[in-house]
Structures are given as C-alpha cells and as structure tokens.
Amino acid sequence: LILFCCAFSIHANTLSSTESLTISRNLTIVSPGKIFELGFFKPSTRPRWYFGIWYKKIPERTYVWVANRDTPLSNSVGTLKISDGNLVILDHSNIPIWSTNTKGDVRSPIVAELLDTGNLVIRYFNNNSQEFLWQSFDFPTDTLLPEMKLGWDRKTGLNRFLRSYKSSNDPTSGSFSYKLETGVYSEFFMLAKNSPVYRTGPWNGIQFIGMPEMRKSDYVIYNFTENNEEVSLTFLMTSQNTYSRLKLSDKGEFERFTWIPTSSQWSLSWSSPKDQCDVYDLCGPYSYCDINTSPICHCIQGFEPKFPEWKLIDVAGGCVRRTPLNCGKDRFLPLKQMKLPDTKTVIVDRKIGMK
C-alpha cells in the first residue's frame, strides 16, 4: 500500500467578506498573472508590520504600495478583513488602525481584488467592470506604476501625489512630496515639507520642459491629460514583460527604474533634479543658471547683481535692472535651452499651437 500526501498552494487574487489575512498565518493574495503580491511584511528588524504590495515575479523584494505606512502594527498580531463594506486592518485588540473609508451599499457583498497592474480594488461581488468602490491607485505611496495616475480628479477633488519614505527601509511618510500644481499652466513640484525644491516646468504637448528625459522611448509612453474632469500624468509600457516604475526617494530624487532580468537588478534610467541648476529658485529673480560655468548664476542681459558683493556666488539676492524699464525702447530677447519660469501666475493663450 502506497500513500501519497500532497500539499497544495492556492493563489487567489480576491478576498471575500468571509476571509481574512493575518500576520501569523503568512497568507498572501497574488494577482492573476502572478505579477504582484499583497500581504503583511516587516521591512526591517524593528517590530513594525505593514500591509502592502510588492512584485511577485522579481526576486528582490520591491514594495510599491503600503496601506498603513503611518500606523504600523507594533507586534506580530494583525488582521486584514472586509467589514461593513470596507477593507480594514485590525491590531491585536481588534481595533481598526487603517480603513478604506468607502460608503458603498453594505447590503451588497463586496470583494477585494488584486489586479495585474498592481492595483488593489474593492468592488461589488457580482460586478467585474472597472467601476470600483475604492482603489489603491488613488492613494499612492512613493511609487507610480504603469496606468497609475498622478494629479487631480476634478470631479471628486482627489489629489493623487507621491510621498517619500522616511528612510530606505521605513515606509513612514517622509519629508518629500511630488505634487501637481494646477495653475493656469500645470507643472509638477517637489516639496521638502512645504517648500518647493524642484519643478518640472510646464507641459509643452510632448514633455515637461525641464524633463527632456521624458521623451517617448522604445518601451515607455507618457501621457498628460488636462480637461474638465482631470489633470493627470500617467505612463504605459509597450511591452508587458518589461517592469518599470517611477519613485520618489527618501533623499528627494524623482527616479525611473527598469528591471533588467539578465542581471537581476533594477537599473536607474534617469533622476530629477539632475544637477544644481535644477534646484528651485537657486539664483534668484532675473537670473539664470548654467552648470557649465563658474559661478553658475548669471544675470539676464540688462540686469546686474542686486548686491555688488554678491558676485552671483551667494544665491541670496538675485538681479535688478541696470536702468528703469522703458516700454518704448526696451525689447524682448530670446533665451535658448531654458526651463520656462514658474507658471503659477502667468496668462496663457491656449489657441496658440506648438509652432
């Protein structure tokens, strides 16, 4: 008599109202194509547990979204479940420390589902459409994935932005944020706490002026949408087998990483700010910055340093006119290869085309 004992591992991409995930059981949810995985994790030796999403197919554990980044579990007891139409995380005392806070019909059964895009969604059980009650893509952490939007939903007032980690292995909200400012001309700003340290320049129909690296490549396409319903940035991959992501680092760098299977590591494609001249308002008013000169700050033609002792080395003063403005004689001069000035207070004639 031969006895066979078989162990099965079933990877489901949904969580029903009768199921739960706990730290102790170490169960996870895997997307249909086994691209992303979701569950509890501990990123360091400290006793702090988080619930998040990471790449399943990539051996190097790379987290792309964290639910309770500012309310970690302090011990190895925690539960994720569906309660009253919401996805909630309960601590060891069954007290909610995080919730999706949706307002759906609690009488209708719902499920949580992890998609192959890396999007965790809540939907009604009998509805497989793209109409979600809640989705993690609306609440980014420090990472922007393909098909994920960064910017404003003008119908709901939702602002999707990135917030850096506190440190490389601490998902707590850090000092840097990456937000879309929707003035007359929209552009992204990187803020250190609440102070701007970098901006992309406005979108010119092809790219953000200060980010030439965003031009279309062989494997990624950027799309900037601005209409009555939304103003947002997203990107798509031309190859489903290529994994790439945008990330705001804990050091204040906006970076693109692409996974290289042959070397089994993430490759840094580009990062912003690129150099010292990318720093916001480095040289002050009526000046420009040239990284290839010393000093790097210069006054625009017709202007001089506000303080003669400044010599455009200290960045405190900026420049002033040599002579008063004369609207009858003064003229405009072109400045080539420049990032357009801050556009929060400009007037734009949108009937004028690119040419």
From TrEMBL:
Pfam families in the cross-refs: B_lectin, S_locus_glycop
Membrane topology label: Single-pass type I membrane protein
GO biological process: recognition of pollen
Stretches assigned to the Bulb-type lectin domain: 14-135
One GO cellular component, as annotated: plasma membrane
Entry keyword annotation includes Nucleotide-binding: yes
Annotated compartments: Cell membrane
Keyword terms of this UniProt record: ATP-binding, Cell membrane, Disulfide bond, EGF-like domain, Glycoprotein, Kinase, Lectin, Membrane, Nucleotide-binding, Receptor, Serine/threonine-protein kinase, Signal, Transferase, Transmembrane, Transmembrane helix
GO molecular function, one term: carbohydrate binding
InterPro entries the UniProt entry points to: Bulb-type_lectin_dom (IPR001480), Bulb-type_lectin_dom_sf (IPR036426), S_locus_glycoprot_dom (IPR000858)
Annotated SUPFAM superfamilies: alpha-D-mannose-specific plant lectins (SSF51110)
Name this protein carries in UniProt: S-receptor kinase
